[in-house]
């Protein structure tokens, strides 16, 4: 396993203009449990995270308890410290699995635990009553007294009065149940409204989860990125590998059809998707790293991106993903990937 400098944040445009390699500070990783521990600030939350969050969307659905715990163990062995789940993942089973793991390993204080709420069938939306019930439900399933980053999921509820939601979040923060606030599914103008309310004393939204990767770029690379940058929000993009397509494992429609995300994977097997895979292949070969690592490194080279959220099905895949935090892409390699996606 070869690892290079860590891609810990956004590139310096002036350095790139001079033709330098991506100027992230080089921090070597030489193997699980060995070498430097990488931590980057999670925006202005006061929390520090490994520049790759382990997502738990598959836990309790396509990944059983034993395998899920193996994935979590492997991530921690490589120096990871940030785990992301949601009350809607597998009807709450994902949170149960993480809670069991935290208790059995005694790692609660070492892990930055984030949970997205608003999509559980019992407490949907961001209304005050359901919001409190949803957080209490997540805390119970996770077996903890505190959620480090609470992501407010607006995908099912974009109409609830935001002031009421943030007033409820303020109570949750004051009660010690929530440390920092994030957003998922928020339109740029809603983030602006949230910042105006924050200036009046309500809790600030400091982290944003927006689906973003080499395939799926348009929804983020516009007003949303501008607002995130202007507000100094930490962006933790989900779907970092586009359901596994950007790992390079799904090369033809017959293989893709066998996966649990077959329809989504087949939809990317077009000319554009194949061009992107070829560009990833070339760079992965140049750097002697897996394709998935290059995909993660590309994300970390983008402005405002702090820690992509990545889901996986097997512990052995964690090795490939974690390498992405240590790959420094050159200006030419970034340009090749950008051209492939046009």
TrEMBL record:
A Pfam family recorded for this sequence: Aldo_ket_red
Domain NADP-dependent oxidoreductase, first and last residues per copy: 51-338
Annotated protein name in UniProt: Aldo/keto reductase
Organism: Microbacterium galbinum
